[in-house]
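TODO from last week: model G-protein coupled receptors family 1 profile domain-containing protein.
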Amino acid sequence: WAPLTAIACDGKPECIDMEDECQDKCGEKQPFCSKIGPTGLFTCSEQFTLPGRLICDGHKNCSKSGEDEIGCINRFVCKNESAKVYSVRKNQECDFSADCEDASDEANCPSTHFYCEGGKPFFVDRRSMFDGKRDCEDGSDECPKDSFKGSVFSSAENMIENRFLQVMVWVMGLLAVGGNAAVIVHTISLLCYHARRKLTKVAMVYSCMVLNLSVADLLMGVFLIALGITNASTSGNYCLKDHSWRSGTPCFVLGTLAVLSSEVSLVTLAILSSYRMFCVIWPIQSRTLQVHVSIGLAISTWVYAGTIAFLPFSKMFQEYFVSQTMLSTNPYFFTEIIDKPAFKTFSKILLSYSNVSYEINKNEDMFTWEKMSQRLEAFNPEYKALGYFGYYSTHATCLPKLFVDRRDVGWQFSLSVTITNFILCLYIVGAYAVIFRPRQVNKTAMTSQGTRNMQRRIAILVATDCACWLPICIIAFLNFSGVEISNTVYSITAIIILPINSALNPLFYSNAVQVLCAKML
C-alpha cells in the first residue's frame, strides 16, 4: 500500500519508491536514499526490500542492521535501541505520553515534567506540584527532596528541624509567658491597690516602665509558644503546608508580634536607662517627674515599634516588601509561586485582549500586586492570589531576615532598623557607664544595701541585653559587607539569642518572680 499524495522533502518517505524524499529538489539527500536498489525500493543488507512508508517509521524493519532507521531526521531515538520501538517523532517527545518502551522520550523534560522520586508513576505534570494532592505515589510532587535544600530552619518533615531548637522554643516561650505574667500581675497590684500609697513618684515611674517592658516581653513568649504549636501540628508533613503557611496571614501576624515585642523591649530599656541616668545626675529633680509622662513615653514605644512592625504588612508598601505571590492552580503557570516579572508579563497579555491603550499598558501603576491579582480573578474567578511572600515570609519562623544583603526584599528597611537598634544599644551602655561612675553626692546612697542590689540587677540586665543585641547587629553588618554567615549561626541567633531577653528580663529587672516564689514557699 502507498498513498496517492505525499509531502515532499519532510524527511519521512511516504511514496513506495521514496521519490517524495529522494528527488533532486530536496537538496542534500537523506542516508536512506543511498539504499535504493535495482527494484527502485529500499534494499536492506539482508537483500529484501521495503516500501517507503516503512522507512523511518520508528521500527527496525531491516531485521539485523536496522539501517532503515539510521539517519532519520525529526526523530527522537529511544535509549533502548534494541526494543521494538526504535524512535518516535520529535513532536512526541515530552508530550506526557510514553511512546518509547523505556519512556526515554519523556525522561528529559524538566521544564514540564516532575519525576517522582519513587518512580510510581514515572512522572507527573509539573503544574500539579504543590497543589495539595499527592500525584506521585510517594507524595514527592508535594515534597521534593531538594525543596528545603539550604533552608535555615526547616526540612520536608518539620518546620523547625533541629531538636534542640524545638525544645528551646518551648522552654523560652513558657519562661517568657510565665515570668512576664508574674511581673505584670505584681506590678499592677503595686500600682492599683493598697501598696500604691507607699510608692514614691520615682517608684511609680519605674513600675510603669517595667510593666511596659513585661507586656512587650510577654508578646515574645506568645510568639514562641505559637511557633512551637505550629511546629508540632505540622510535624511529619510540613512541606505540604510550607507555602500556605509562609504566605498566610497567621505567619504575618506572628512576625509582627516578634518585631513589635523586640522593638518595644529595646526602646523601653533605653528609656529606663535614661531615667536611671537622670535620677543619678539630678536626684532632686527626678522626684518631680509626673507619672503621666512615663505613660506617654510607654505609649510612644508602641507607636514607634508598631510603625516598624506593621509597615511591611501594609498594602501601601506592598510593592516594596512583597517579592512573590502564591496563585491557585491554573493552566498558565507551571508553579504556584510566581515572581513579579512573570506575573507582569502574564498581566500584559491579559491587557492585550482588552480595549486598553498602549500608554496605559506602559503605566507601571497598572501592574501593582493588587491590580494584577484583581485582573487575574476578573479573568477567571477560580484563579486568584492566595497569599504573598515578603518581609515576614523568608523563613518558616516568620521572623524578618536578620542578616540581609542587597539581594533581599526590603533590605534598606531591615538595615535601617538594625542600625537604629545598634545605636540604642550603644546609648544604653553609655548611660550605665554614667550611672556607675562614682559621684560624691551619691556616696552615702551607694553604700546602702538596697542601692548595691539594684545596681547589681542593672549590671546583669545591661550585660545580658547588650550581649544579645550587639552581636546580632555586628553580625548583620558583617553579613551585609560580604562575610558569609553559616545557617547554624543564623538559626541560633533567631531562635535563642533574639528572644532570650524576653525570658530573662523578668528575673533581672523586677523582683516580682522572687516575691512570687517566696509566697509559694
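Done. Residues 280 and 442 are 8 Å apart (CA to CA).
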